[in-house]
Amino acid sequence: MEENLNQRYPFINPPLPYAYDALEPLIDEETMRLHHDAHLQTYVDNLNDLISGYPDLQNWTLDQLIIGNDRLPWEIRDAVRNNAGGVYNHILYFSRLAPAGETNLPSGELLSLMEQRFGGFSGFREEFKNAVGTVFGSGYTWLVLDRNGQLQIVTTANQDNPLASCFFPLIALDLWEHAYYLKHHNKRADYIDNWFSSLSF
Ligand code: MN
Question: Which is the most buried residue in 63, 112, 119, 197, by most CB within 10 A?
């Protein structure tokens, strides 16, 4: 699925790499269906509508549309930022989830970087949760690589993407209410715990 992070127009909604109910009971089937087939699909459709009128942009990749947002025609700049972000962010989010028993913890170079920066996986988890607490309203918390190849945790609002700030995203946690409200209602902390249990590096 993540090979579609640098796809070009016409953009597609790649199928999930697991069944809609594969993450039950941690992440429920109805949420996954709506999240993938309705929310992500709408971002794909909107982005295609936007780019259809701009042949010069049809060879830009999804990540180029995000990184080069300030070089786009002014009249579509905000809409492309929101919708290209909506496509990229969701594909990364879904790519990093796996059914119970199939999740991978960090290993190799990523684990070394995590040990340097956070003292290990549990330190990463604690700092990540602290960052989640600073996201007010709709947005994301991310694990990213900075320009020096070091790990950082950053947050963004709406469907903004860290690529626009010269960070390379590794992990995306969707904190929009549509990601958890059907199952968890207002208990966002329960969703975060269940997301962590489904997270696969
Ligand atoms: Mn979402």
Answer: 63
